[in-house]
C-alpha cells in the first residue's frame, strides 16, 4: 500500500513550531515518543467499531500516522488529514515502510492507496462525497481554550465526505483528577496568563464533562455511545518526557510568553514527582471517547 501525499496551502497558526525546538525535530519527537501514548485509545475505538476491510476511514489530525497504521493493519482503507507538514512527512514514511503488510483488503492483497493530505480540515480532500464510513478525531479535546470550536469546524467539513449514518469518533482528556498529566500541563496555563490577558495566546484548560457532546452537537452529530480508556504516559527518562510533552504544541504559547528555557525548567520541575526510582517517568491518565453518527 503506497501512500499518496497531497499538498495544499495552509492557513492559521496551529502548526507554528515552538521556539524551543526545530520543527522537524519536534515532529520526530511526536512520532517516536509521544504519539504512542494514545495507542490504547485507538485500539479500544477500533475494536468497538469492528474496524476492518469494509472500513473506509478518514482521520482528522492524523499526526504522524500511527492511528492510521493500526487501522490499516486491520484491513481498513485509510485517509489522513494533518496540518503539520513534518508529521505528514513522517506519516508518509511510516505507512510506506509498512505497506507490505497492511493491505487494504481481506487476504492480505494490496488495497486502495493510503492518501495523506496536508491541511487543517477535511475540506482539502478531493476524494468526493460519501467516500468514507468512519471519521476519527483522536487529538484529545480539553487541552486548550478554543479547541472545541476548531474541531467542530473540522467536522463540518468532513461530514459531507461521509456516508449518512457513518460513525464519528471524538476523543478527549478525562477528568483532571484522573489524569496525572494535568498537573504538568498547568505549567503551560500559568506561564501564559500574561499572554492571554493581552490576547496574544491561549493556554491549557482542564477538560469539561460535556466537551465531546458539545462538539458533536455543534457539528450536527448524534451521540451513539462512549467509553473511557486508561492511557498512561510513560517515558524512559526525564529528557524523553520533556521532549515528548513539548512536541504536543501545548507549551508553545508558554514559550512565547516567557522563553523556551524557562518552560523547560518549569516543566522538568513539574515532572519530578512522577519520576520512579529507575529514572523512568510515569503518569496515569484516563481518556474519553465519544461515538456519534453523521446525519
Automatic annotation (TrEMBL):
Keywords: Methyltransferase, Transferase. The keyword Transferase applies. Residues 58-99 form the Methyltransferase type domain. Transmembrane segments: none annotated. GO terms for molecular function: S-adenosylmethionine-dependent methyltransferase activity. The keyword Methyltransferase applies. GO terms for biological process: methylation. Residues 1-12 have a biased composition (Basic residues). Residues 1-26 are annotated as: Disordered. It comes from the Bacteria. InterPro entries: Methyltransf_11, SAM-dependent_MTases_sf. This is Methyltransferase type 11. It comes from Streptomyces agglomeratus. The lineage of its organism: Bacteria, Bacillati, Actinomycetota, Actinomycetes, Kitasatosporales.
